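Question (not urgent): is this output format expected?
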Amino acid sequence: MSISEWPAPERPQERLLSYGAQALSDAELLAVFLRTGTRRSDVIDLARRCLSTFGSLGSLLKASRLRFCEIDGLGVARFALLQAGVEMSRRSLGEAIAERPLFESPAAVRDYLKLNIGARSHEVFLALFLDAQHRLLATEELFRGTLAQTSVYPREVVKRALEINAAAVVFAHNHPSGVAEPSRADELLTSALSNALALVDIRTLDHFIVAGHRVYSFSEHGKL
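Got this back:
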């Protein structure tokens, strides 16, 4: 049976309009995005097949173009549309955390970091530079590394913070391994960065480790 033959209240788009996007399952949300299925399956079946293949909605969102396009019924156009949607969400969250002091919206900060670096296949290191009222001045990807490590130089971080005239900094990096726990190297790096910035009267407020949908806070664990 084609989805157009379903009773109207059961169709994903109608359910979204009636009850909100939060009421839909992952498969239903994906079906609304995909809009149409294939000759052999309706859009719900296609959505379920995608989720079964990738294991989760998050894994689908971070799939490479090649891997995404291997699924019958998907393609470059849908991949581009999906990436545009992810980027719009990322920018929207960036705007939200820039409108007020950073830690007035801790959930938004975590969501922004998860969307920004949680799905990366390589390790990246971000700095969120803040003014004296802890409002966001800039977010910059300072370093990019291999799957296992990245090279972060405190001198370069201090130089950039001074250029931006930051009063405080929040750091974040991802663990592509999926383990949201700091290594000894992470702890030593955080200490080195904090000490270097303190010499020029710039506070280090937190260091987040992002692993997929999990976020570890150095500050919350008493390590800053």
